[in-house]
Structures are given as C-alpha cells and as structure tokens.
What we know:
- This protein is of the alpha/beta class.
- It has helices spanning 2-14, 18-26, 28-44, 67-75, 108-111, 113-121, 133-142, 246-256, 265-268, 290-304, and strands at 54-58, 81-85, 96-99, 126-129, 147-151, 162-166, 191-194, 200-207, 213-217, 234-237, 260-264, 279-288.
- Strand 11 (260-264), helix 9 and strand 12 (279-288) form a beta-alpha-beta unit.
- The longest helix is centred in the N-terminal third of the chain and has 17 residues, at 28-44.
Amino acid sequence: MKRFWVLWGERYLYxxxxxQKILSLLLLxxxxxxxxxxxxxxxxxxxxxxxxxxxxxxxxxxxxxxxTPVVIELAKHFEKPAIVLRGYGRQSSGMVxxxxxxxxxxxxxxxxxxxxxxxETLPSATVIVSEIRERGIAEAKAMGCEVVLLDDGYxxxxxxxxxxxxxxxxxxxxxxxxxxxxxxxxxGKDTIVLMEKVAFQRSVSIKKPTEKMVLVTxxxxxxxxxxxxxxxxEKIYFEDHHFFTQGELExxxxxxxxxxxxxxxxxxxxxxxxKKLNLSVLELSITLDETLITTVKDYVNAAKN
Length: 305
C-alpha cells in the first residue's frame, strides 16, 4: 500500500492525470500559503559562516534529480572532502560518521543508501549523516576536511554556502501540495542553476549484463532511468530508499524467469550481501563542465582565506 501511494504521488507531481490536475488546482490556496511561509523563513534567515567552505548540491523539487553522481564527481576534485547529508531512509538517528578518510565505520542500515554509496565510491572522502546539518559540518571541520559538500542543502538558508541547483523539468510550477516545489528560486540568493547537457553530461554503462534482465529499483521518480535502459523484460519499482530483503528479490527472479536483476548503484549497496542473486548494475557517471569545476574551486579557495 505504501508503495502504491508513493508512486501515485510521483505521478501526481510530475506526470498527472486529468483527475490529478483538477486536484492540484483545488489545492492551490494551500500551495500559496506554503510558499509564503517558505519565503518568510528565507527572508528571516541570516547566513552564517561555519568556518569551512561549504558547497550545496540540490534541487528545488521533491523527488530525485540525479544529484548523487554530481556530488561524487565534484568530490573527486578535492583532496580532503566531506559529504554531509541527512541520511534519508536510514534506521538510525542523530549524527553518524559513516566513513572517515580511509575506513567505513558502519553498515548501510545505519548510514542509509546514499551515504553508503558515497562511502564506497569515494576512498578519500569523509561521509557524515545528521538531521542537524550544522552538527555534521562542525564534525567535518574537526576531522580536518577542507570542504563540505552539502547534499540537498538549498533550504538551509542560515548556512553560508555556494548553492548549486540541478534543474528538474516539471509541468507544474507550484509549491507543495499543488506542485513539486519545496521552495522557489528566491531573488537575492546567490545560486548557480545546473542544466543537463550544459553544466554536466550523463553517461551510462551496464556491468554484468545478461539476456533477460528485470529492472528492480528503489529511487525517486524511477522513470528517469528510461532513456538509459537496455531492453528489460519487466520494471519493478519500490518506494525511494526501500530496504530490499533477499526473499522478495528471489521471488521476483522466480516469477519472471530473469537471468539477472538490473539495479542502480544506489540499490546495489543494499543488496551486496545477497550472494545468491545475479545482479547487473546500471552505472551512471557524470562529466562536469570545466567552467563549473573552476567556479566551485575558486569559491572554496576564497572561503578558506
């Protein structure tokens, strides 16, 4: 039931039916109130330096935007980066140091899937999850990191930072609950909007492909994968951050006759202990525009002084 409502909500926000469009219009008064409150919160916030350069990578809308591979690629351009994120979907609370400069310190249950993907992909990065981002940033500074990459931090207006926003096309320009926007692009806020095929390019490869693959994924707006997919015999979507059990995956293989399950890198970190499963991996990589890399480095160097 939860999966049904999550997928229904994603269709409502990004690809609405006629009934959903009518519902969206009926909810407009609530959206105006929501957006006004978000604007007041922004105007009342005073950005404060936390003593370390901070670059936020995020988007204005709910749901996925592909920010994780952008964060990963940016982190590769620094010697001692830290990634600080909330850790959605994790079964823990408070601040958790997922990885120091060399060692992964907890499992995916405590870290959440995105944090573990960062930890496994970036050997020199420190990864910290914390609902209170300021606490995670302070810990990164204490651990000797040179820059914090703040995952999805646009709305943290009280933190002094460089904001990078990934543009997410949507036919609905309204704030929640009529549309997908958590906030608008507020005037006076120094922000760089990243357009795909301008600021970055995506490329996809399939690791260990087989003849009869079934796509199984638990990412937000999974239809985003469609342009990059090879031929698959079925697509099975779970709610974002879902923790798979080996039993439910084995049942999918048995029912479909799949020769392998096709998963994303984010899904793989939650399946790697299931040795009996044959997994193919949809590996997404990003190439960043050199001008963007220079802009970020210039900001970080200036913020150090």
